[in-house]
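re: the backbone from monday

yeah here it is again, tokenized this time
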């Protein structure tokens, strides 16, 4: 048959044209074997089925959306945590629980770390140990911290290995044992932990728990520094400055101090911010004494001020000396004494001695 509207050939018994969609007048009867139905009735029946399917699909979508809403709102997490991670955490996935913990702080972080750590997640165990160590979300408890550090280390956590070394080195939660500290630091350092490399270097430099070896110490500082550890870069600079494990090279020392000083401290942890401030102070110190760079009191004062503003007590003391003797600034003995006194009151040992001479 042909469409009454566009003339296109369409299937017999069709109520509508498949080309232009026009309704056909010549409705024929369709033999069903039992009843006879018109094309209009068939069309309406198909329409009902389509509506039913759409309603079912809509209901499924609504239920899914409600589920997403409930999951998203039932878990507090950082903005980087998506629905799938939250859903996995609800289902008890340790990795998802650990990810959520790392997006939080305080008690909420501690709660999720506990969940993940109890399932054997090594990194969560190490982080949980640090919560007990630092008191974040929990009461400080060095013994409990050590327990979790040990579990983490046994499960292969490099951070856990480093923390075991730290605990034995400082006698926190366990009797102080420098040999065991060195053993744990070696394990963590061999696994690439730069903080462990630095602390192991300190052990070699001082002969603590291991035979003194300044050359080995220098090499470890160098390796950790190359991998971005700021404290190791400062210690490497000091080694060049004093000739510990290497030849004296004050120019190289100045370059390394300036490398640390140039870092944007806002991008670092509080601990690393302190190292940046220390780097800034040391640049000022090198300018002040003319070590590795031409002596320049004005530059020294500039760097002392920058470091002082970041909380460095050495810089506060150095600035006091500059004012007291008028080096880089006009002589102002009262201001000089005031600055050194402030450093002394805040626990700076050298400032206490200097104050007696002013």
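seq for it, each position gets an aa:
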């Amino acid at each position: 048959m042909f469409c009454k509207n566009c003339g296109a050939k369409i299937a017999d018994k069709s109520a509508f044209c498949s080309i232009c969609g026009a309704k056909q007048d010549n409705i024929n009867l369709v033999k069903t074997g039992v009843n006879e139905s018109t094309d209009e009735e068939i069309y309406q029946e198909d329409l009902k089925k389509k509506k039913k399917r759409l309603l079912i699909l809509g209901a499924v979508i609504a239920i899914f959306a409600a589920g997403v809403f409930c999951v998203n709102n039932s878990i507090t997490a950082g903005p980087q945590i998506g629905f799938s991670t939250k859903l996995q955490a609800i289902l008890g996935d340790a990795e998802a629980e650990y990810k959520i913990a790392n997006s939080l702080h305080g008690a909420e972080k501690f709660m999720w770390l506990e969940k993940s750590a109890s399932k054997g997640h090594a990194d969560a165990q190490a982080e949980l140990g640090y919560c007990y160590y630092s008191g974040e979300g929990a009461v400080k408890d060095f013994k409990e911290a050590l327990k979790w550090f040990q579990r983490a280390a046994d499960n292969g956590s490099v951070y856990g290995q480093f923390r075991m070394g730290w605990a034995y080195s400082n006698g926190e939660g366990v009797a102080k044992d420098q040999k065991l500290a060195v053993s744990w630091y070696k394990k963590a350092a061999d696994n690439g932990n730069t903080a462990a490399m630095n602390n192991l270097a300190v052990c070699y430099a001082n002969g603590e728990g291991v035979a003194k070896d300044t050359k080995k110490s220098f090499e470890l500082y160098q390796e950790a520094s190359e991998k971005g550890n700021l404290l190791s870069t400062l210690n490497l600079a000091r080694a060049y400055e004093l000739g510990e494990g290497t030849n004296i090279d004050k120019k190289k020392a100045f370059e390394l101090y300036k490398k640390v000083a140039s870092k944007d401290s806002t991008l670092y942890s509080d601990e690393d911010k302190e190292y940046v401030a220390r780097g800034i102070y040391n640049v000022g110190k090198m300018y002040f004494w003319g070590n590795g760079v031409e002596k320049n009191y004005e530059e020294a004062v500039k760097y002392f001020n920058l470091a002082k503003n970041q909380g460095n007590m050495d810089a506060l003391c150095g600035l006091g000396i500059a004012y007291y003797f008028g080096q880089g600034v006009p002589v102002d003995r009262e201001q000089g004494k005031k600055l050194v006194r402030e450093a002394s009151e805040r626990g700076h040992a050298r400032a206490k001695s200097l104050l007696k001479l002013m």
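Residues 27-36 have pLDDT under 50 and may be disordered. Strands lie at 29-31, 36-38.
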